[in-house]
């Protein structure tokens, strides 16, 4: 009986993490669409939400947190909010992870 309860608890934890990851992916995709449409202010709000989900789900040093920080910094930079973009870029470096976007060859500097 005890083993069944442990399995049930483990299943709930795994399903919860999977749902949070899906939520992050959906928010990230929505943010990218808004960014591409030039709707930077709206994209920033969605990206902030994605960042919160990533930090709460994966921890502060995860690559998805780094990507959300990078994206939010890019949105601030696109709006000329350099003072807000700088600390976000610094936090990306502090995570010790490369944002997922930087692992794609077309985004790397030659």
Identify the CATH architecture: Alpha Horseshoe
CATH superfamily: Tetratricopeptide repeat domain
Radius of gyration over C-alpha positions, nearest whole angstrom: 16 Å
Instruction: Tell me the overall shape.
Output: flat
CATH topology: Serine Threonine Protein Phosphatase 5, Tetratricopeptide repeat
pLDDT < 50 runs, ≥5 residues: 104-110
* Secondary-structure element order, N to C: HHHH
What's the CATH C level?
A: Mainly Alpha
Distance between the termini: 59 Å
Structural class: mainly alpha
Tell me the total number of β-strands.
0
Largest sheet: none
Residues in helix, %:
over 70%
Q: Please, how many domains?
A: 1
Note the total helix count.
4
Report on the structure:
It is built from 4 helices and no strands. It is mainly α and 110 residues long. It has one domain: Tetratricopeptide repeat domain (Serine Threonine Protein Phosphatase 5, Tetratricopeptide repeat, Alpha Horseshoe). Helix 1 runs antiparallel to helix 2. The C terminus is likely disordered.
Brief account:
The chain is mainly α. It has four helices and no strands.
Jot down its keywords.
110 residues, mainly alpha, flat, disordered C terminus, Serine Threonine Protein Phosphatase 5, Tetratricopeptide repeat
Helix and strand arrangement:
Blueprint (H helix, E strand, L loop, with lengths): L1 H35 L3 H19 L4 H16 L3 H14 L15
Helix pairs in contact: 1-2, 2-3, 3-4
